Automatic annotation (TrEMBL):
Gene3D superfamilies: Nucleoside Triphosphate Pyrophosphohydrolase
Annotated GO CC locations: nucleolus; nucleoplasm
Locations listed in the record: Nucleus, Nucleolus; Nucleus, Nucleoplasm
Protein name stated in the entry: U8 snoRNA-decapping enzyme
Chief subcellular location: nucleus
Entries under InterPro entries matching the protein: NUDIX_hydrolase-like_dom_sf, NUDIX_hydrolase_CS, NUDIX_hydrolase_dom, NudT16
Native source organism of the sequence: Laodelphax striatellus (Small brown planthopper)
Amino acid sequence: MNTTFKLLISGRILTKSGLVHNFKYSSTAWPFVKDTYINDFKVIDYSKKYDYSKSTHAFHCMVYARMNEQTFTIQRPRGCVLMQMRFDGYLGFPGGLVDPGEDAIHGLNRELEEEMNLDLTKHKVTEKDFIFSQHSSSRNLTLHFYALETTLPELEKIEARVQLAKDYGSEVLGIVRVPLYTMRDGFRGFPAFLTHAFIGSAREQLLHTLQHLKLLTPEEISDALAAKPHKG
Ligand SMILES: O=c1[nH]cnc2c1ncn2[C@@H]1O[C@H](COP(=O)(O)OP(=O)(O)O)[C@@H](O)[C@H]1O
């Protein structure tokens, strides 16, 4: 699929737990990268009138900055992207299930404060940061993904605050930068990072969002997915 098309999404979700999510955005959809990673989350379009009201909804967010700096002599990543090491050893994004009756975006910001100690007076996710949603019927779970852009100096301040987060040391074991480059051996860097264990659809969220934000090209992503493991 090579065509880009426009998604028009508007509506309101009221989940069984009373979660309120008002949708009103239009975003350009993009061709999804082909990945052999197996999970049962399907990308969904809210303009289709499925009944997601009986599903559990979770909201997660990628915090990132664009950059154009040399990190090592030969590497020049175009962005700095944060993920977290969870309590269960999986990599994921900050976020989670929203409390009953809580506004969805409010719930996501609350999770970011609890898990990352994000200073909500400076950085707050809004509907304009929405990227895409997925649904798993077998898990009865709908996942909504957002990307919050900041500057590199601000991102460094965000990282420095994480160890004082309420959930640090329990639910969250650390924040990590994703290596958005591939080293000379063709495997170390991003391809090696992708071999870790990811929770839910976090790996797909990462790949699709990197492509959508043009932090990696589709070719760079395909090459990383095809790279063969290498003795470290
Ligand atoms: O970063 C993520 N990206 C995509 N899916 C995730 C991510 N983190 C968790 N999930 C999925 O969403 C569900 C609920 O999210 P939450 O963060 O509350 O997980 P937890 O209950 O395992 O801590 C999880 O069971 C998992 O399937």
